[in-house]
Amino acid sequence: MIKDSSVMSEPAYFVLAALLDGPLHGYGIIKRAKELSDGRVRLAVGTLYGALNRMSGSQLVAVDREETVQGRPRRYYRLTEEGHRVLSEEAARMEQAARVVTHRAAPWAGTAQA
Amino acid sequence: MSRSLAERWYELVLLTYPKHYRAEYGADIMGALMAGTRRLPSIRETVVLILEGVGERARGSAADRVPWWADGVHLGVTVIAVANLTYALMDRAGPAWIAVSTVLMLTLMRGWARVSLPLAVAVAVSTGRVMMFGGDVTAWGSGLLGPSYHNWVSLIPYGLLAAGAAVLAVRRPRGLRRRSWFWPAIPVAAVLVSYVLDGPYGELWAVVRAGLEAGFLLVAVWATAVARSPRWITAAAMYVLPIQVTAAVYTQSGALDRAYHVLLAALLLSVTAALWLGTGGRRDAHPPPLAER
Questions:
Q1: Which residues contact B170 (CB under 8 A, 6 or more apart)?
Q2: Chosen from B16, B28, B56 to mutate, greatest number of chain A CBs within 10 A
């Protein structure tokens, strides 16, 4: 298997993408990532917070505010400028990678139909 | 309102995380867990929390100021000291021997290298007294001095204990990590198994011992893979290699014994392999493949 450490994992991508529309708390990120990925990305809570911890360290996300709901603290996370930049770069990279296939796949699909 | 079973369980599982991490994220993690929860805890969430918690501890250890080799030797001698106390209790050794073994374990746990050195040397010399000074085993008063071995192979762990303690005592700069208070639970569990649930060195103890060893070695595999540090290889080798040498010199007859030694060897090799095959080298922005968990 080829490992490329410069490629962002799909779940990490959807964690960042979930925050594009505004700050969310942990469970909100899990639900939004699942929606955006059509159910493919089902984040475990431990995994999400491990990712948020590392992303905070890399300054991709930051704590926006904290509320108390039913006696529990609820922290909202937002995307930072650096997070926006990294996410946009990753989206552009995937778009370019997808074009490599889709440009060739279109005529092949046509031949198959004929 | 009383807390649910799931809440109590997750609070227990969160103890796998380091204290500072729990202070930072613990309440938030509990909130997220309970927001989407049912009455019973989820196995998937539990497994991931344990892996992440151990991984976080491993990354913290690797980032510590203590160099990997010193931390590895420290962990190795601590494990040997825990084993020494465990067998002292199971053998119902004399109070002096149990006291020395207990203090040795505690001083190593606290990272007091210079205090632990004379105790480690005393334990090594005492167990090797017949080999070093000759004479009859019974002539030395085993009630006070503890067990005595009449072959060099059995003395390898004690030699490692004394040598490791010496290295830690003379190294500069000083300073070692404090070990978890979890370690004394092992001798306590051994006494419980040996004298309450089963006889000394009975079948139940054999299973518990193999399970504990395999469990710790699996944790070492994961920690090495996550943090990409050889410290756990050092500690695992200090514990496992003497057992393997003993097995090689005194050939094991039973199939279960052979399986046990093959398992330990395989796990030690896995810890070593994890250094090269792990995920710790990946950038923070790109956590390990989350969806695969």
A1: none
A2: B28
Q: Which residue in A has a C-alpha nearest to residue B17's C-alpha? A: A46
Of B30, B52, B283, the CB nearest to A50: B52
Output the pLDDT for position A55.
94
Say if the Cβ atoms of A47 and B284 lie within 8 Å.
no
Give how many domains chain A has, as a whole number. Answer: 1
Rounded Cα gap, residues B148 and B134, in angstroms: 11
Give CA A83 to chain center in angstroms: 10
pLDDT at B139: 57
Q: What is the DSSP string of A29-80?
A: HHHHHHHHTTT-----HHHHHHHHHHHHHTTSEEEEEEEEETTEEEEEEEE-
A89 token code pair: 């770069």
| DSSP 8-state assignment for residue B155 | G
Q: Does some domain include residue A2?
A: no
The partner residue sitting opposite A45, judged by closest CB among B24, B29, B51, is: B29
- Looking at per-residue confidence, does A73 or A64 come out higher? A64
Cβ <8 Å between B293 and A47: yes
Alpha-carbon distance B55 to B223, whole Å?
6
ipTM of the complex model: 0.81
How far is Cα A14 from Cα A36, in angstroms, rounded to an integer? 7
**What residues contact residue B156 under an 8 Å CB cut-off, 6+ apart?**
B241, B242, B245, B246
Could you tell me the end-to-end alpha-carbon distance of chain B, in angstroms, rounded to an integer? Answer: 33
User: Measured between CB atoms, does B15 come within 8 Å of chain A?
Assistant: no
Name the residue of chain A whose CA is nearest to B35's CA: A27
Q: Give the structural domain span for A106.
A: 10-113
Nearest-Cα distance to chain B for A109, in Å, is 31
Do residue A8 and residue B288 have CB atoms under 8 angstroms apart? Answer: no
The verdict on residue A3 lying in a domain is: no
* Any domain includes A36: yes
- Structure confidence at residue A1 (pLDDT): 36
- pLDDT by residue (tens digit) across A21-69? 999 999 999 999 999 999 999 999 999 999 999 999 999 999 999 888 8
Q: Do B290 and A9 touch (CB under 8 A)?
A: yes
User: Domain-by-domain residue ranges, chain B?
Assistant: 5-61, 62-277
Instruction: State the CATH number of the domain containing residue A34.
Output: 1.10.10.10
